[in-house]
Every structure is written in C-alpha cells, then in structure tokens.
TrEMBL record:
<dbReference type="InterPro" id="IPR036866">
    <property type="entry name" value="RibonucZ/Hydroxyglut_hydro"/>
</dbReference>
<dbReference type="Pfam" id="PF14234">
    <property type="entry name" value="DUF4336"/>
</dbReference>
<dbReference type="InterPro" id="IPR025638">
    <property type="entry name" value="DUF4336"/>
</dbReference>
<feature type="region of interest" description="Disordered">
    <location>
        <begin position="1"/>
        <end position="29"/>
    </location>
</feature>
<protein>
    <submittedName>
        <fullName>Uncharacterized protein</fullName>
    </submittedName>
</protein>
Length: 512
C-alpha cells in the first residue's frame, strides 16, 4: 500500500459512485434519499448544557456477533455534541447500508480510519468526520486509539493492512463518540487490554465504566490510563502519553490522553487540536454525508447550485464547518436565531428551484458570501436580537479563511467550544501542559487529530503554541475573535449563572 493513498471498501465505493453520475442523476439520487427522510418542524437553537464533546449513541439493534455474521444493519451514525446549534429538526435518517469508512496509511506504522456522524435533527445537514488511529508497537502488535464503528468494511480494511494483532484498545477521552464502540472492540479482540480515561462515565452519576446500558461487559477487564506514562505498558514499546484533566463545570470534566508515536514523530490527539483544509475530507464526499454538503452549499433558498461540481461540495463543507466551530457565524441569518421569519422562508421554499436537495425546498438560512462594505469586521456582536442585519455582515468566505488559518501561524487550533468553555477554565495548568509537550517530545513531525483534516505537518513548538494560545484569550486577529461572538456571549452567560466555572488555578492537572 502506497503511503498516503486512501482505501475505500465496497460500501464506500458504492456511496462514492453517486458523485460521478451525470448531471441529472445526482438530483434523482438526492431526491430518492430525501424521500427516506421525514420532515419535521424548524426549531430554535438547541444548545446542550453538557458542554463536553458528549452525545447519545443510538441503541444497537442486534448483537455484535449477529451484525458481523449477517451483514449490514443499515443505521446512520447520529450523535449529539456539546454546544452545537441545529437549524432544523427532521427525524434522523438511516443509510441504506453500514456507514462508509475511508482508511489510509499516513506514516510508517500509523494508520487512520475515517468515518463520520451527524447531529440529531440534521438528516441532511452538518456532519463531522471522526477518526480512529492505529499505531504500531515496538516488538510487534498494535495500539488502537479511539476505536471506530467496527463495520464489516472497517474490519476488512484492518485485516488487509495486517493490523489484527491488537494489543491495546485506548479510549483517549471521556467523550462518548470516541468510546462508544470500545465495548464491541473488546469483544472482537478479547486478548487486547482495554485502557480508559480515569473519569469515564463519571457524569451525571458515577457508575464507573460498567454502565447499565451500552457499557463494557463486566467480564472485560478495564484499566485506567495513568497520568504517570511510565506505568503504561506501551511506554516501553515506542509510545509515550500525557493526560490533561480539567473540571470545567459542576460534575463535568474535560479529560484527554494524547499520544506520541516516537518512530513516526506523530502527535495523536482527540479534541485537543484540529486542522482544516479548504477541501472536504474524503469521507464527507460519500453518501450519506455529501447530501449534507449539497444542502449547505446554497447561500439562500432560491439559489441553484451545480450538484455535480466539487466546488459546490467545497462551499457546503466550509459553511457547515463554520456552523460547527463558530456556532452562529456572523455571516449567517437563520430562522433558528430569530433573524428570519418562518412564513417568509416557507414562501421561499415553495419557489426553491432544487427541492430535491432536501426538506421540500425548506432552507432556513441566508449566508452573506462576501464582506458587506459597511460590515464592522473587528466588532464583537452583542447577544441582543437584531444585532445582525441583511446589509452589514461579514462574508462567510472571509470567516472561513480566518478559521482555517489556525492560531498564531501554526495552521491548527484548539476547537472553539473546547477552548472557550472547557480547557480555558485553568489557564495555568493548560500552559504548563503545552510546555511539557514541547519539552518532552521535540521530535513531533505531524499532528493526527480525531476530527477534520489529518495528518498535519507540525513541530513540537507549533503544537505547544497552538494549545497555550488558549491561555491568552480568544484567537487573533480582532476579526477572528469577533467571529466567535456567539460562543463568547454564551461563555459569559454560563459564567454569570455559575453553569461553568470561572478560570482559576487548580481546576486541572496533568501530572501524577
């Protein structure tokens, strides 16, 4: 397998085939897909107060053995995450088959497996790439970090890469979307040791790892990842780790274990860092996720887009990522935020030229593409209604450029909701954690995150700088900080009402 070339299994190839159909065919395919999605009413911004990357996974419809023995169970990955703002609320869609997987060897001894999940209420809407990383161990065997959905396709890819000698299954965070499938992996690889984040399943009730529903079997031995990396079995096999814990709200914690794969110089993390490319990750160009990009590609309901154009997918990707990272972009007017009136948007839906894109033409958005001449790019919006207008908005293309640039010239960043609402609650601990990364791992060559683009070229100095930038407040320049108006206003509200802690020393730790 050539380094850097991706692998698509039969499921992924089938989903990808739709992209290459003639111009008229994608519309028919999309229309058929949307007929499988039921429409419900528009809702306001649903902001979760469980401010972690948390979610609720759908219940398994059949046993693991049966699923792998009899084939595809046909459900789409749908999870909720903290601080996300859906625009519409159709019932969750189901894919025709198991969700696709795209896998790739990105360095010697380093493999990534990309899948995706959607936000409840957005059957055609924003989707987030999610990644499993497999690392070789010195002396033989492999470590699986943040196990993915073990579909038949994903397991076949694992076999084809020769990665079935799994020694360790590591859940790098308390966030459910990164640990939900670990119990299934423990069943598939009963000889592998399972290591979990120490605060796993500790909120809202501390069940421990053996939660009543959806957790590990009590027959599965579990071990907690130690803060002292020398106590982990992989420490003598070419992999080191650091673990950051921050209590950011009552009974609510951010906890993540980051790895350093010494042979390849790979810094492997979950939500600690992300990097954004202008083009959508390959997994999002496959059904059922590409339909979401097409839906978001328009600036307003009456716009007609070329569904066969890669540029259309690119535009949809960038706008959906702005929604996920900036929460309520300054360039966006929406029904959900109260900027647009429902009756008027329903009237536009009836005139929409491409109702096949989803929801019978309903598109509760109006995006400003370029900066308005009167837009005040550096000014933070107030939380009051009417602070946005049609006439004086920054453009989403400028917002995207500022977001994708990362922070302080590094090309990557801590995601805004993690930065502003979670790890910033203890700036001193976060800063010392960032400094320890550069001190301890001077050989970092690349970053592999569990979301969006990877691998990213990196250095230990840039990784440390991007993480410690959170301690210095919202990212610059002023226009970039202003782009985060919605989440900064939300942060202030949560602090004022004691729903998250105010920044203070002692809320976090990374040393044993």
């Amino acid at each position: 397998m050539e380094l850097g070339s991706s692998v698509q299994g039969p499921v992924a190839r089938a989903h990808a085939a739709r992209i290459d159909e003639p111009r008229g065919a994608p519309a028919r395919g999309i229309q058929a897909a949307t007929q499988r999605k039921r429409f419900a009413t528009a809702i306001g911004f649903g902001i979760s107060l469980n401010l972690a990357w948390a979610g609720q996974a759908q219940a398994r419809s059949r046993s693991l053995r049966k699923a792998h023995g009899q084939g595809r169970h046909g459900r789409r990955e749908v999870l909720s995450i903290g601080v996300v703002t859906p625009l519409v609320a159709p019932l969750a869609a189901k894919a025709e088959a198991e969700p696709p997987t795209v896998s790739k060897k990105v360095a010697e001894g380093v493999y990534i497996f990309d899948q995706a999940y959607g936000i409840p209420g957005l059957g055609v809407g924003a989707n987030i790439p999610i990644r499993m990383t497999v690392l070789s161990l010195e002396g033989g065997g492999y470590l699986v970090y943040n196990p993915c959905h073990p579909t038949a396709e994903a397991m076949q890819m694992l076999k084809e890469f020769g990665l079935t000698d799994v020694r360790y299954i590591v859940c790098g965070t308390v966030a459910i979307e990164h640990k939900y499938y670990a119990p299934q992996w423990a069943q598939l690889f009963p000889k592998a040791e399972v290591w979990i984040s120490p605060r796993t399943f500790s909120w809202p009730v501390d069940f421990g790892p053996y939660v009543p529903v959806g957790g590990f079997s009590r027959s599965t031995p579990l071990q907690k990842i130690p803060k002292d990396a020398s106590l982990a079995p992989w420490s003598s096999k070419g992999i080191d780790h650091l673990q950051l814990t921050v209590d950011y709200a009552p009974r609510t914690v951010f906890e993540e274990t980051v790895l350093f794969h010494k042979p390849s110089g790979s810094f492997v993390c979950t939500d600690m860092l992300i990097g954004l490319s202008d083009e959508p990750p390959e997994i999002l160009t496959l059904s059922p996720y590409k339909e979401g990009l097409l839906w978001f590609s328009r600036d307003e309901p009456l716009e007609e887009v070329d569904v066969s154009s890669p540029k259309t997918l690119k535009d949809g990707y960038q706008k959906s990522v702005l929604l996920l990272n900036n929460i309520n972009p300054r360039s966006l007017l929406s029904v959900a935020a109260g900027d647009l009136a429902v009756p008027k948007q329903l009237g536009l839906a009836s005139k929409a030229p491409q109702k096949e894109l989803g929801y019978f033409g309903w598109y509760p958005c109006n995006w400003q593409a370029s900066d308005s001449p009167c837009a005040k790019l550096d000014d933070r919006l107030l939380p009051s209604k009417g602070s946005k207008t049609f006439d004086c908005r920054p453009g989403w293309r400028g917002e995207w450029t500022r977001l994708a640039a990362g922070v302080e010239g590094t090309g990557f960043q801590v995601p805004s909701f993690v930065a502003e609402l979670q790890v910033s609650r203890d700036p001193e601990t976060l800063d010392s954690f960032a400094k320890e990364i550069s001190r301890r791992w001077p050989g970092i060559k690349k970053v592999i995150s569990s979301h969006f683009s990877s691998p990213l070229p990196a250095s230990s100095e840039n990784v440390s700088k991007a993480i410690s930038a959170v301690c210095r407040g919202p990212p610059g320049p002023a226009a970039r900080a202003a782009d985060l108006s919605a989440i900064l206003n939300f942060r202030d509200y949560l602090e004022e009402n004691d729903l998250i802690y105010k920044p203070a020393k002692g809320r976090g730790s990374w040393t044993a």
